[in-house]
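re: ur question from earlier - yeah i can do the single chain one, its not a big deal. heres the input i used so u can compare w yours
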Amino acid sequence: MAAKKKKPGFEQQLEKLEELVDGLENGDLELEEGVERYREGVELLKSLNKTLAGAEHKVEELTATLRAELQELEQDGGDLDLD
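and the output i got, formated as tokens:
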């Protein structure tokens, strides 16, 4: 079975997007190459936004859990077990 190609991480995708933007801003590209780089940049941006939205959701869930635990602790007058 062929190995799955691993998707680059967030930082690598962001670096690639920055490279694409720099190349487009330079203005030394042929039209077709510029359009292709723009398309690639849009796809990277979609992926980055999806990753950020997922991370934001996780942070919101963790924050809600912590708030609930702190509220329960305040009501019980006990210590919060952080383990």
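DSSP finds two helices and no strands in the chain. not sure if urs matches, ping me
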